[in-house]
Amino acid sequence: MINIKEHLKVKVSLPTEVVKRDGYPVKFQLYKLENVLENLNLEAKSSTLLNTLLASFNGQSSITAQELSQKMVEVLEHFGYQNEAQAYLTYRQKEEQSWKEQTDPRTRLERLLSQDPELVHENANKDSNVFNTQRDLTAGTVGKTLGLKLMPQHVAKAHLRGDIHYHDLDYTPWSPMTNCCLIDFKEMLTNGFKIGNAEVVSPHSIQTATAQMSQIIANVASSQYGGCSADRVDELLEPFALKNYHKHLVEGAEFIDSQEKVEQFAKKRTKKDIYDAMQALEYEINTLFSSQGQTPFTTLGFGLGTSWICREIQKSILRIRITGLGKEKRTAIFPKLVFTIKKGVNFAPTDPNYDVKELAVECATKRMYPDVLMYDKIKEITGSFKVPMGCRSFLQGWTDENGVEINSGRMNLGVVTVNLPRIALESHGDFDLFWQIFEERMNIAKTALDFKVKRVLDATPENAPILYQYGAFGKRLKPDDDVSVMFDHERATVSLGYIGLYEVGTVFFGPNWEKNQEAHDFTVSIVRSLDAHCKRWSKETGYHFSVYSTPSESLTDRFCRLDLAKFGELKDITAKEYYTNSFHYDVRKHPTPFEKLSFEKDYPQYAAGGFIHYCEYPNLKQNPKALEAVWDWAYDKIGYLGTNTPIDHCYKCGFQGEFKATARGFECPDCGNHDPKTCDCVKRTCGYLGNPLQRPMVHGRHVEIASRKKNISSEMR
């Protein structure tokens, strides 16, 4: 790309801003005019045409988008480029027609009715075959078109073009819902709550406590659109299990004379109660359906409690997961399990809970979960320790007006993701132009995120009583209270997402840049700049903006598909037909876990609002110490680590291991079975597990798996 300023024949005063069609002023960007001429095959004439075009502005500091388009046509016609002028007008007309179609509910409903895979299989956690999911998809389809009309038009068009992605458009901004949260279970279980017509009091046993938790999860999931987590569930449930123990002490004393034997009896009975309660919770979560037509995305964090009750809760969670669900002992998809490793608690053989860590390792080799949090590193990166909300969204350290650290009861207000590969492609390898376009996209993303916050503030406590009035968000508001007290002073987070650092590096340094220090530093500088923008926005607004390593799911396909149409087939970038999630190592390569984690470890310190690392392994069931060695090595280097290992099981022939990816999907390599009724095929999709045989994704992650055969997903390595 030529340097326009150097080719202008006369000095002209450039406008400083362009007023978009929705009245929003944006910075004037000279490169956009050159892109128009390049698309019209007039790049060789750009200096003459641009000089004339800019001179026609007569020194105006501000022009409208309509004026700019009109003058472009006039200049093209003046130089005799009638066909090009008509092509430009046709492009503008098509863009406006596309806008009308995208914001017409009837058009999108027709696509849904025809089972358009892009709509039907957009979310891997939704089974589009069932009625309540179909109902939610229908409502979401209408919600998207109305939401696009609600937000600033230039933001909506940037979303439709693929410059950014306004997440969860089926729910927001049409509804003032919040995203994911850490439920304040302690407050609710201690002080009681109300669901529907029932006033629920504090439980007197662990069985009742877990039953109440499942009801809370179902209602919270139906009142927001993101995941929900229970932090330190072992310590949370300890007081209620202790009530069981005291009851059994009384019961045992009636029939047993020896105090020692009474205590043994009570402990044995309590351990059974704990196991039954945790098993019930696992089954209840997996059988729940929220109003969105999906199993609530639930995360349980545990591992730090050292009392015998906490230890028993931890062991029960892991043993139940190892055993599996139902008569066929299938791998449970939810809840997502997150086990915390902490030196002095469970890290080394001399630590009191080391045996629980060994059980966690065994569980991960057989069921992929639990993921692990490294206690000290999480505190270093995020400012306090807590489990993620959903699959990877982290709250930042925060204290209330009394200086008390608060984690549970806080939430996220939404995500907007920037298409970084597109910026790199538009810059044509010019670093200065990359940063210029980057700043423009930051401004669009900021406007989009501001709108997310603004819309959430329109909610009233009565819209979601479980969240605002009955303790899930910590504070209990009255029906007419202002909900902003839940979010301001950086109590809530709002997330700036990103995708495709690998592709960005490839544009500038070629496809094998992972060991190139200059390339690595450049990609780190991008995430560092995202973080700097978020810090500035937080100071300006009072809301905590944070960088989020987006779990892109179908977005890896959507952005790439749009860029393939825009830029054509580019080797190692758009030709792959997918983009790489966040900061992850190129999925097509095969680094060791140590190489991969060494490469990725520098990014999360600037993406503290959301991150996770994955390593892929062969079958580890016979070698759990190999997995533990990676966990131990990673402890001081990364904060959050997931395991990917083959755990597929064919009940027809008995095969256990990794199913073969074929053009028609996954199948048993021994007998060819691919019937979800007689096989258990489990893959990790963007932070959580899923069964691609039961929930196919035609344009998304799972067909990508089958068509590429060797790769599980761009998150898997």
From TrEMBL:
Alphabetized UniProt keyword annotations: ATP-binding, Nucleotide-binding, Organic radical
Instruction: Name the InterPro entries on file.
Output: ATP-cone_dom (IPR005144), Form_AcTrfase_GR_CS (IPR019777), Gly_radical (IPR001150), NrdD (IPR012833)
Q: Which GO terms describe its biological process?
A: 2'-deoxyribonucleotide biosynthetic process; DNA replication
Q: Which Pfam families match?
A: ATP-cone, NRDD
Q: Give the GO cellular component terms, alphabetically.
A: anaerobic ribonucleoside-triphosphate reductase complex
Gene3D superfamilies tied to this protein:
3.20.70.20
Q: Which GO terms describe its molecular function?
A: ATP binding; ribonucleoside-diphosphate reductase activity, thioredoxin disulfide as acceptor; ribonucleoside-triphosphate reductase (thioredoxin) activity
User: In its UniProt entry, what is this protein called?
Assistant: Anaerobic ribonucleoside triphosphate reductase
Give the source species.
Ligilactobacillus acidipiscis
